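INFO  loader      accepted 1 record
INFO  loader      residues=183
INFO  predictor   begin
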Amino acid sequence: MNGRRWAVAGLAAGALVAGGAWWGLDPGGPTAVHSVCGPDFSDDASIADESKAVAVVEAVRTGAYREPAGEPNAALTTQVKVLETVKGEFPAELAVTQSARRGGAPGRYAVPDGLIRYALLEPGRQYVAGFTGETSGAPGTEAWVWYVEPVERGVAGEVAHWRKALAAPPKAAAAEECDDTIN
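INFO  predictor   done
INFO  writer      dumping tokens
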């Protein structure tokens, strides 16, 4: 092979390697995923309106902690006693699942980054909780929360506040259709 053929062959091989690297590194899907669904957490009326259920609960005991492989956050399940129902239906007690991550000392958990108005349920404390899904407590179901804050007005005061919030129109109307993926 003369010098010119070597140069052409080298350029062709380089182009193939570069193209293969680009193709191999491009995932072909969304480059960023952002959650756009859910209530306006600055507006209690929006939280009450968009939650499938709202209740004042008392955490009884912390249960299972699960870290799914490849997931940024884990799930912590806590048994709660339902003190008062604001919206939806609840049994007297149910297991509540919430996002969490390991935090500091062994057996301690923390709120995942980016979540607001979201306290971790601690046994012996009372909370107002907004639920996104099933609250029947039936086998095979999980009651997930997206809003949890400690009781500040007493149980009766929280019930009155959240019933008023439920009756008020949210500041912004909920989207008719919601897509959780943005490219």
